[in-house]
Inverse folding.
């Protein structure tokens, strides 16, 4: 695997951070351990568990404490961030989980219409539960997930505040007749993650803090994934010849009217999220990959390409051509932000397991 060295380094960094605990700069400390115990105590008492996962990593973002929770009729896997994943694979993952007797629903917690549809689906599930126990006047739903699956945003999009149950787990009422409560739990990771690839994917999607692995390492991992994918081919129309005007020069020439002139004034070269910057980043990446003549499956060749891309992106991001790590770190931070907001394509990082009788 061409990314083996990167994955191994990132996995090692995550494992070392886990040993430190939260007080030593790691990510698993007494507070997370206490939250894990509190969640484990309540899981058997609730009627329904919503396990929120990241749609980009439907397996790697599994909430490990639920592995022994075998009542599939009382658990729903909610794949959030569907807008950032490979859209063609969403249905495949829903079908896969269905084959595993798991109910699955994909959502984008920023889309109000999508959330409304999910709430209707959830209400239908609650009604099904009531049929099995018509004398119960209250339904309790537990919301669980690892960090950065935007469980909190999903919660705020679907429920209204209600007095908390404990300082770790809050209770929110979302329905009456019958009463429906949601127990919102802290985001929790397991105390140890043994698989280096899982560590790398959690770091790339932001479930593990960047500082524990290093932004440059994570950005290099993203570039390796991009280089080995077909996603960059969508940017072919952005490429320009040497004699062509740059996109920014063309924009400046075209914006001649007073109204368009106002738009020009709102362009800030230091803001990497603006369209003209994103355009140049995409074009730079496309040109670097399409003109590369090495072997992408060879680690050394892939590493050489990534190093070249970092240098080229200094210009695309309008970062002064400084010598040293600071400029490289700026490229890494901006690149990761664009990836995590979907501006550089849509990626599903987990492959669908092939050890089952899977039709795809």
């Amino acid at each position: 695997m061409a990314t083996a060295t990167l994955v191994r380094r990132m996995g090692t960094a995550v494992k070392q951070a886990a040993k430190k605990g939260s007080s030593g700069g790691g990510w698993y400390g007494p507070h997370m351990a206490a939250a894990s115990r509190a969640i484990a105590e309540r899981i058997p008492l609730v009627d329904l568990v919503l396990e929120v996962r990241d749609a980009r990593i439907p397996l790697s973002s599994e909430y490990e404490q639920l592995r022994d929770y075998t009542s599939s009729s009382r658990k729903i896997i909610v794949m959030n961030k569907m807008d950032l994943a490979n859209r063609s694979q969403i249905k495949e993952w829903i079908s896969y989980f269905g084959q595993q007797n798991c109910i699955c629903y994909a959502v984008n917690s920023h889309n109000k219409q999508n959330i409304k549809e999910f709430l209707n689906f959830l209400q239908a599930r609650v009604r099904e539960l009531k049929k099995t126990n018509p004398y119960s006047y209250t339904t309790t739903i537990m919301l669980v997930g690892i960090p950065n699956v935007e469980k909190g945003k999903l919660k705020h999009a679907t429920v209204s505040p209600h007095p908390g149950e404990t300082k770790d787990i809050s209770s929110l009422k979302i329905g009456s007749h019958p009463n429906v409560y949601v127990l919102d739990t802290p985001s929790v990771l397991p105390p140890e993650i043994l698989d280096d690839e899982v560590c790398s994917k959690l770091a790339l999607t932001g479930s593990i803090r960047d500082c524990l692995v290093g932004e440059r390492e994570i950005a290099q991992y993203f570039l390796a994934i991009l280089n080995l994918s077909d996603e960059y081919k969508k940017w072919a129309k952005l490429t320009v010849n040497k004699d062509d005007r740059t996109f920014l020069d063309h924009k400046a020439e075209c914006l001649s009217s007073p109204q368009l002139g106002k738009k020009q004034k709102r362009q800030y070269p230091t803001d990497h999220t603006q369209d003209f910057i994103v355009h140049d980043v995409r074009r730079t990446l496309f040109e670097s990959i399409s003109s590369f003549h090495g072997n992408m499956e060879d680690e050394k060749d892939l590493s050489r390409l990534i190093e070249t891309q970092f240098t080229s992106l200094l210009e695309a991001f309008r970062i002064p051509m400084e010598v040293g790590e600071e400029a490289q770190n700026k490229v890494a931070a901006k690149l990761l932000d664009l990836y995590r907001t979907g501006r550089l394509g849509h990626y599903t990082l987990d492959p669908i397991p092939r050890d089952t009788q899977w039709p795809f």
Remarks:
- The CA atoms of residues 43 and 69 lie 8 Å apart.
- The beta strands are 48-54, 75-80, 103-106, 138-145, 170-175, 179-184.
